[in-house]
Amino acid sequence: MLDRTLNFAAPARFGRTDGEPAGWAVSTAPVAYPQAVAAMEARAAAIAEGQAGELIWLLEHPPLYTAGVSAKTQDLIEPDRFPVFASGRGGQFTYHGPGQRVAYVMLDLTRRQRDVRAFVAALEAWVIGALAAFNVRGELRDGRVGVWVERREPGLPTREDKIAAIGVKLRRWVSFHGVSLNVEPDLTHFSGIVPCGVTEHGVTSLVDLGLPVTLDEADAALRASFREVFGETVDAPPPI
Q1: Among 5, 114, 149, 219, which residue's beta carbon has the most beta carbons within 10 A?
Q2: Alpha-carbon distance 166 to 40, whole Å?
Q3: Cα 152 from chain centre
Q4: Distances in Å between the alpha carbon of 146 and those of 39, 79, 160, 171?
């Protein structure tokens, strides 16, 4: 088992070569998944053409399941529970819904590093840094995508639960899709799928860990950690 815990205070490791800040947008109302994907793809295309700047877009979705390119049919346990959408991102089935902060990451890797592994490691460092702001130790595990936390309770075996998912896609070296952090979602909604194909571990959230964190507080931690890993941001409007 590999513990690759990363330090919140780590210096920027995936910054732009020209130092230009990325836009930072927050949608205050839930955004339908098809419209979000269309907006992401349009923005990523505009970034690749040099017609728009990079954008980090924070939002919530209505309850739904998405199937990444590696999704297995048998991992959709309750296909009629929520809408199910095919997704071009990496990974398997995941859940999105209220209380979960989704961060769609539209970055130009040509102006950063054309290194997919380094990019994914930077996304992991970003989430782990945000969790550290709440004294939560986020960890990575070989063979399991996402960010995990150990749960220790007196008299019970230590268990590991997933607190954040990562799934991205690149087109012309511009990223889209991104990460999802469980702040206060209804964790029972995950029971309709096998999250990311992992059956032997569960899911958790900041509130489930006993931390009464709001979405605004999670956003502030994500933005501070993003600055450490990717560089500065500036306020920007959501793409829709």
Answers
A1: 149
A2: 16
A3: 25
A4: 24, 23, 12, 22
Residue 168 in tokens:
């991205």
Token pair recorded at residue 170 = 């690149």
For the chain, strand residue ranges (E) read: 22-26, 55-59, 64-67, 84-86, 93-96, 100-106, 139-141, 144-151, 159-171, 174-182, 202-203, 233-235
Taking each helix axis from N to C terminus, what angle separates 116-132 and 215-229, rounded to the nearest 10 degrees? 130
Q: Which of 125, 147, 149, 196 is catalytic?
A: 196
1 in catalytic set: no
CB 132 within 8 A of CB 138: yes
User: Which of left, alpha, beta for 91 (phi over 0: left; psi -120 to 50: alpha)?
Assistant: left
- Determine the Cα–Cα distance for residues 78 and 140; give it in Å rounded to an integer: 28
Positions of the chain with pLDDT lower than 70, given as ranges: 1-12, 196-200
> CA nearest 191: which of 97, 59, 86?
97
List the one residue out of 59, 22, 79 whose CA is nearest residue 233: 22
Q: How far apart are CA 234 and CA 29, in angstroms?
A: 21
Task: Please write the tens of the pLDDT for every residue from 126-181.
Answer: 999 999 999 999 999 887 889 999 988 777 778 899 999 999 999 999 999 999 99
Residue 51 is given by DSSP the state S
